[in-house]
Design goal:
8 helices, 8-stranded parallel beta sheet, binds pyridoxal-5'-phosphate, globular, 216 residues, alpha/beta
């Protein structure tokens, strides 16, 4: 599918696109920008900072990779959304840095849905025990959840993980964020499985290689 068809498909399903531009240079990002895309995702702080400096200011930057607490300060003044918040300690640091510059930061709670130990994200049962504390921070807007599935060709595994994330979202929404209308995003799905993710309730897909070509 080419980019315009992809954009049309996502529009028809009212799903937001985050174009994952990691490893890709600014001129390639500009080509996608010129087709109307404004949301771009990066997984490394340094790389995102460098691109932000040279690219148009109306780009909304999404941090989708693991974030170390000591690097929060480099991105809070411009980042649109941090998808990878998986601990209260990290959230606290984002709040502190956001407070300093008087800017509210949008975050997603990254929940562990894959079986592999290597995948990051907070365990959902643990989250439930501390979620009240997550809601206390003045300079944080919790916009929803994010998950990364197991890297597999087995569609049933991926589907069950996506369904799990949707369940987690529904439980959080019902029990803890029912009065928070902007708790509304489920960030799941990548190039290989975005249609399945949309089937399972995704509101935001993170698509890289399908738009930019394979990464070397
Ligand atoms: C790289 C990456 C993507 C995009 O993956 P593609 O398969 O290239 O679409 C999505 N989400 C995260 C967290 C990533 O690191």
């Amino acid at each position: 599918m080419d980019l315009i068809s992809l954009i049309t498909y996502l529009d028809d399903h009212t799903v937001k696109l985050v174009a994952v531009s990691k490893t890709k240079p600014p001129d390639q990002i500009m080509k996608v920008y010129q087709k109307g895309v404004r949301d771009f995702g990066e997984n490394r702080v340094q790389e995102m900072v460098e691109k932000e400096e040279v690219l148009p200011k109306d780009i909304k930057w999404h941090l989708i990779g693991q974030l170390q607490r000591n690097k929060v300060k480099y991105i809070v003044d411009f980042v649109h959304m941090i998808h990878s918040v998986d601990s209260l300690k990290l959230l606290k640091e984002i709040n502190k840095r956001s407070c300093k510059i008087n800017r509210v930061t949008n975050v997603l709670i990254q929940i562990k849905i894959a079986r592999e130990d290597s995948k990051s994200g907070i365990d959902f049962d643990q989250l439930l025990t501390e979620v009240d504390a997550w809601k206390e921070y003045e300079y944080i807007s919790i916009r929803g959840v994010m998950g990364i599935g197991t890297l597999t060709d087995d569609e049933e595994v991926t589907r069950s993980e996506f369904e799990k994330l949707k369940d987690c979202f529904d439980i959080l929404k019902q029990r803890h964020f029912s009065k928070t209308e902007y708790f509304s995003e489920i960030s799941m799905g990548m190039s290989g499985d975005y249609k399945l993710a949309i089937d399972c309730g995704s509101t935001m897909v993170r698509i890289g290689s399908m738009i930019f070509g394979a990464r070397s």
